[in-house]
Amino acid sequence: MHSIWQEQMEFPVYPILKRDKKTDILYVGATLKHAIEANFQKEMGRSVMIIEEKSIGDMPELGGMGILKATNMNEFKELCILKNYIIRQHIPCDLEIISETSIQVHPVKLFLFMTKDVEVYEQTKITARQGKRLDIESAYIDAGQVIEDDKPCEIYSCIFRSRFSRNHEARYSGDQKI
Predict the structure, then answer these.
(1) 2 pLDDT exceeds 60?
(2) Which residues of 75-96 are buried (b: 16+ CB within 10 A; e: fewer)?
(3) pLDDT digits over 24-37, tens only?
């Protein structure tokens, strides 16, 4: 099942991981939150990967409502970083500022932009795990850090965890007024 966001554009087909890989950070699940975090980590020089057990183009979760909200001060700070980053990078994701604590984006466009320089694999299921070494049947992934959410993240209520360095935060927060 596609969302209206996915029907409005051509979605790429991502490869299936079939050989051993090593990465600094592995995101398990192709969510908008993971795409954003992976992009920022990649810009800070870390090697990152996203794996998804489903076909990403068929995930209705990537459609959502495209509304990102901040409900506390940390979330507000992170939302401002993201909003200013979208503006400065001229990301074509149909950004609309709803309020000081809420923005709306085209989630698929933002996902695609944020993952353009990130290794993304679909139909890649973890079958076993020994510490930070993951078995995906056809290969192994050795990761310095594995990030996965316990619960599926709905885009409109997604909270971006603080994983940004002070340098990165200063680089993108700025004092731009909207």
Answers:
(1) no
(2) bebbbbbbbbbbeeeebebebe
(3) 999 999 999 999 99
